[in-house]
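Sequence, please.
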């Protein structure tokens, strides 16, 4: 995937603009330098037929992307959804999510999971408006600090 570097860039920008208020700088940097955000990992997801990587372009430039990975029988997980800060609140995220849900549904998935930082009110509000329901809140480690995770699920019924 030739866009993998741009996708990583969008992810880094997303982390720096969204999580700066509750994830310490050194913990953000350590995570962003790790395997989850490596160009190699993004390329592997794009090449894996069990995964999905979608890119949204606006005026010929990558404006956002998402990745979906298997989570269990009949279930997938939305693992990344990032939109260029200059394109946020313009419908790019919703279009990407709608497309991913359509692909997952046609592939036989019955539900989709997403994990959002509990303190990410904007992200949580987006998923709640899009029909996801809160499964659980749980503490997790983000480097040397404790942060909260909010796990959401959405059924992928026929309609």
């Amino acid at each position: 995937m030739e866009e993998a570097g741009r996708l990583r860039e969008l992810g880094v920008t997303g982390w720096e603009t969204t999580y700066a208020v509750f994830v310490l700088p050194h913990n953000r940097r350590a995570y962003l330098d790790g395997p989850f955000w490596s160009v190699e990992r993004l390329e592997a997801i794009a090449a894996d037929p069990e995964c999905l990587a979608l890119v949204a372009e606006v005026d010929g430039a990558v404006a956002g992307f998402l990745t979906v990975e298997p989570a269990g029988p009949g279930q997938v997980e939305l693992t990344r959804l990032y939109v260029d800060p200059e394109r946020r609140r313009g419908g790019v995220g919703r279009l990407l999510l709608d497309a991913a849900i359509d692909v997952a549904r046609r592939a036989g998935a019955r539900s989709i999971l997403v994990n959002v930082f509990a303190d990410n009110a904007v992200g949580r509000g987006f998923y709640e408006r899009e029909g996801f329901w809160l499964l659980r809140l749980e503490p997790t480690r983000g480097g040397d600090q404790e942060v909260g995770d909010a796990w959401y699920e959405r059924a992928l019924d026929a309609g």
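Strands lie at 52-58, 61-72, 75-83, 111-117, 133-142, 145-155.
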